[in-house]
Amino acid sequence: MIEQQIIRMVEARRQAVARLPWCDAGLWLGAPEGFPLAEELRLDALLDQAKTCGIRGGLVSHWLGKTVSPQVGNAALEVAALPPGCFAVLTGLPLTPGEAGPLPGSAPPPPWVKGVRIFPRAHEFPLTPWCLRGLCSWLTAHALPLFIWHTELQWSDLHSVARAFPQLAIVVESQPLKIIYHVRALWAVMQECPNISVEISNLANGALTWMASHFGSQRFVFGSFLPANDPLVPMGMVIDSGLSETDQALIAGGNLRRLIGEAAR
Amino acid sequence: MSQPFIIDSHTHIGLYGRLPCPEMSVPERLAMMDRLGIALAIGSDQEALAEGGHAGLTLARRAYEESRGRLLAQGIFDPRAANRCLGELNDALGWAGLRGLKIHPTMHATPADAPSYAPAWHFAAAHDLPIMTHSWSASAHNPAQALSTPERFEPFIKQFPGVRFVLGHAGGRGRGRAEAVRLARTYSNVYLDFAGDIFCHRLIENLVAGVTAKKILFGSDFPWLRPEAHLTRVLLAPLSTAEQADILRHNAARVYKIEETPCSPST
What we know:
The complex is a heterodimer of chains A (265) and B (267). Chain A is α/β, with parallel strands linked by helices. Chain A has helices spanning 2-19, 43-52, 64-67, 70-78, 129-141, 155-164, 183-192, 207-215, 232-239, 245-259; strands at 24-29, 58-62, 86-91, 113-117, 146-149, 170-173, 196-199, 220-221. Chain A has an eight-stranded parallel sheet with strand order 1-2-3-4-5-6-7-8. With 267 residues, chain B is α/β, with parallel strands linked by helices. Chain B contains ten helices and eight strands. In chain B, strands 1-2-3-4-5-6-7-8 form an eight-stranded parallel sheet.
């Protein structure tokens, strides 16, 4: 009898995975830092794994953009030749004169770039409007979202930047450590700043359901953090969230596609 | 869902200040369990884990009664308050809600291989109770996790081969997981649960390949993490239905001596 129930549960989840338009904000090339047992995947293997899970596209980032330098990571993405449906998130810096390499913030972004991530802690700059004015203005002008791990920010600094650039879409990412200790701050800053969304891969304490019920599902973005993490974790959180089918579809992919200016596929 | 059958073998009861989440009454929790197909949850008291000093069974008894036996308990052993914990555990012997002991070397600031843990192992051996522990990898982010790395438990595992021992969190996300797998392969009394944010890619299939599905227990770490985060990754993992049944129920039933009869939903 238990086996029969399992078969039914498996089939229900297969159908849910198949009907939702998964678009992933967190596909990563390079060696995952802090996940010593994780396997680095080449682009074709990464996308194959994502596809196996039902993910139909998304944003690809490179660990080298954090662990070595933004320029090196961005150059690696430039030569990666992303297929249709996949776009890059470059690593950004507050620009200073004479920095070599492909950094976002001056020339218009190429069409394969759909976002910028910053690492204020790792790259030693303050997350403040006065330091990030150039980059944030450039992102706003080109309608690109800013991505930032919650471990790279002070919540009051995020609040300042989000208020200073109200037209800038900011996506707070729940990795690489669980965000659940900071849900009070996340709740408050989302309350204050309607331009802040959250990527859900490690928002695993049920907050997705009650926060989406309060703020609306349009503030939540699916991400997997593959290959460090398993896409089936956040997929399960969406499928079993108790939210409506429409809300689930927005979280699974609709919201991210809207943020990056891609029509629903 | 006609009849819940899953056993969530790693949960908590009570509130904890570091963890913001809406309070959930027992009926609300049972409704969540019913929706997800979870029959039983085994848990320990968060306050006794965080503060130590007692076995944390007062709230557990209330939860057991209010849930009509669906919320089972692990009594906490804090080596810094061994006598009080053992006294409370001894008083709870024979209570159907008590299913084992929980230890947490990191929170109780005592290395897992410290002699002060020996009374817990002797107690478990004497009363045929399993021990479940927090385990993790050495962590620069949280140095106290070094107190709970899997290899620290090995001397007691060897000394007490009759005590069913569960490495909660399967050693965590780092090198500790490889150690946890080694222990579960080496010792017949060692089991792993993957509760917590051990969201690693292909974790379930890798654990099964490493230790077989007979050694892995479904656990959520509720309310820190929700069972929703773990359920689909088990159900859609490339496993046989029999292996999924072992992970979702049968292994926990064996470790915690739970009768193989799924329960009825709460409503």
